[in-house]
Structures are given as structure tokens and as C-alpha cells.
Amino acid sequence: MVLRPPVEPMLAKALERLPPASALPGGLVLQPKFDGYRTLVFTPWPGPGPVLIQSRRGHLIQGRFPDLAAAAEVLPAGWVLDGEVVVWAGEELSFESLQRRASAGGRTAARLAEALPAHFIAFDVLQADGVELLRRPYAERRATLEELFAGHGLAAPWTLCPETYDLATAQEWLTSWTRVPGVEGLVVKGRRQRYLPGARGWYKIRRRDTAEGVVGAVTGSLRRPQTLLLGRYDHERVLRLVARSTLLHPDAVREVGTRLTAARPGHPWEGTRFTTSWGSRTPLEVVLVEPDLVAEMDVDTAQGHGVWRHPARFARLRGDMAPDEVTGFDEGPGPGEGTEPGEG
User: Fold this and answer.
1) How far apart, in whole angstroms, are the C-alpha atoms of residue 332 and residue 209?
2) CB contact set of 305 (below 8 Å; sequence gap of 6+)
3) Is the model's pLDDT at 343 over the cut of 50?
4) Which of 110, 231, 240, 313 is 20 to 30 Å from 145 by CA-CA measure?
5) What residues does the ATP-dependent DNA ligase family profile domain cover (predicted)?
């Protein structure tokens, strides 16, 4: 069967630490997890035709990445590659630039392709020369992908995703590589694993940091807060939203609920419209509180414009810390805020 879009990509479920070698068939294969746009690239088969680029949700987006579609003309016919589209900004990956690329079309897409060229990090292959490979073990699919890169001398914008079987090497990647914006953690696969479209058969481990934020609002109520909205002050002393927490555990509800004070007139977030998640337009009902509490949170590395895109985990209140001692908006993690990678 020849694969045609839409094809659901195989997904990963989150873990806190590296799993044992027996967790997946054939032992573990570990790859860096890049903060890009998950995509599938289809080269035409049979006969001539356009290159198709499919998003994770099944949309065709080659019109938004005309540079990548043009570069795919060097690939042989009948291939389907799985990977991440990324945009480099100097020595860092820029998710903001990638968003601009992903939302633009027509002349704007062509202009941005010149200014912000896309790159594709390939980590799997679903089809080669018109032959579907979903039932082949991962190690065989990887060998096929490596032969493609070596045999065709593929270079930028094509990159073969690094991988290792060594847990110590992977732990080093988790500790050091994730300091580069755009590298979030690790993806763990099984050497003998088949490709299961739509299934969460892989694992992912994100590097997590500790950071502080000023509690500026909550969902729920003052006495029974459900989640926290956390801010940091910018250089003009404006409190900027940087994170929203996950649901608080009952002990945290009691701890925080006894300390919250209703906001007085002139709260910095008066009139602000909040949404349910990063990039969403769905409104979120919140209760403003006096910004006099500092919360320590457990966050991953995915940020955009100084805001953590994924919900943060509440760790504790910092009674020893005043709001004006919190790291300023978009100033980085700040002194004393450390890394807590998953461990094998």
C-alpha cells in the first residue's frame, strides 16, 4: 500500500526519567527532542507530482514552506519522511520564527522563506521507493534513512537526527544539549519497534528547570484556587504573564488559599483578557489577587517571548523571597534557578 496524506504520526507519552532497557522491544534508542513542528514529507509516487508536507494534524502545509518543498526535489520518488521542521536564529532554534513561517502563505511565505529558511530534522522513514515500511522494525527503518542521507549526500536543509544506544550519552544530552533553546529533552524508541500511526508508543523526557514567578491571579476562588497565573516584572515595572500552573494538589490548595489576598484597585492585570492555553483564543475566567506572593515552579524549556508554553508545576511558596527579587521578564533563568534532568 502506498502511503498518502493524511497519515497520523506516531506519538510519545511523557515520562519523568529514562526508562529501563526492557521498556521497549529490542532495547532503547535515544534521540534529542527538538521544539519544532512535527511534519511528514511525501515525495510523489508513482510518476511526477508535487511534494506534499503534512502537519501533525493532517493539514497540507507545503504552501507555507515553499523552500522546503523545493529542496525536497533532490529526494527520490516514493519516500515519506517523519521529522521536525525548525528555524535557526544564529546558534539557537527560534520557535517564534517558526510560528511566523507556519502562519504565512502566498507572497509572505515566499518572503519569509528567504529571511527565515526552514530546516527538516529527519528521525524516521515510513516509506522508501514506494514501499511502505510501517511494519519493519525501527532499526531497519533507521538504516534505510541513513542510506538515503549517505547515498544522496543530503545536506542543509536536511539533517539526520542524532541518536545513541548509550544511556550515559543520552543523560549528557539531557543535561547539556537542552541548554540550547529549541532542544527540549529526549525521545525514546525501541530498536525492534514498529511504526504505529496515532499511537503513543514512544516515550519523551523533557528537561525541567526551577524558576520563580509572582502570583498575580488564580482560577477557582481565593480560598480554593485551582491553578495559578504567574508573572514577572519587565524593565518598566509592568507585570508580564509568564506561566500558568497545572491543577494544584489538595495540600497546595490549602497552602496557597490561606495566603491569597483579593486584588485592590489598580491591579496590573485589570482589564487583561486571559486564554486557556498558550496560543489559544478561548477566554479564561480568573480571580485577580494582590501580587505579593512568590511561587517556585517546575518548568520545561519550551518558551516563546519569555512565556512558558506548557503549564508549570507548582512546587512551593517562597516566603523568603519578595516579588521584586524575582528574575525580570525575559532575563533568563536567573541565579539560583537550576536544572533537574530526568535520571536513568
Assistant:
1) 11
2) 96, 330
3) no
4) 110
5) 120-207
Task: Say if residues 205 and 15 touch (Cβ distance below 8 Å).
Answer: yes
> How far from the centroid of its chain's Cα atoms is residue 296's Cα?
22
* Three-point CA angle 255, 260, 263, nearest 5°: 165
Residue 164 has pLDDT above 90, yes or no: yes
pLDDT confidence tier of residue 339, bands split at 50, 70 and 90: very low
Q: Does position 128 have pLDDT exceeding 70, yes or no?
A: yes
Per-residue pLDDT band for 332 (boundaries 50, 70, 90) equals low
pTM listed for this prediction:
0.71
Instruction: Name the residue type at position 169.
Output: T
The verdict on whether omega for the bond into residue 9 sits within 30 degrees of 0, i.e. cis, is no
Rounded distance between C-alpha atoms, residue 240 and residue 305, angstroms: 11
Please answer whether residues 10 and 198 qualify as being in contact, where contact means their C-beta atoms are separated by less than 8 angstroms: yes
Angle at the Cα of 113 (from 330 to 38), degrees rounded to 5? Answer: 70
Domain ranges, ordered by start, for the chain: 11-206, 209-325
CATH code, 11-206: 3.30.470.30
Closest to 40 (Cα-Cα) out of 26, 59, 21: 59
CB 167 within 8 A of CB 343: no
**Residue 333 confidence (pLDDT) above 80:** no
| 283 close to 274: Cβ distance less than 8 angstroms | yes
Let me know: does 190 contact 26? Beta carbons within 8 Å. yes
Angle at 229 between CA 224 and CA 230, to 5 degrees: 125
Cα(128)–Cα(125) distance, rounded to whole angstroms? 7
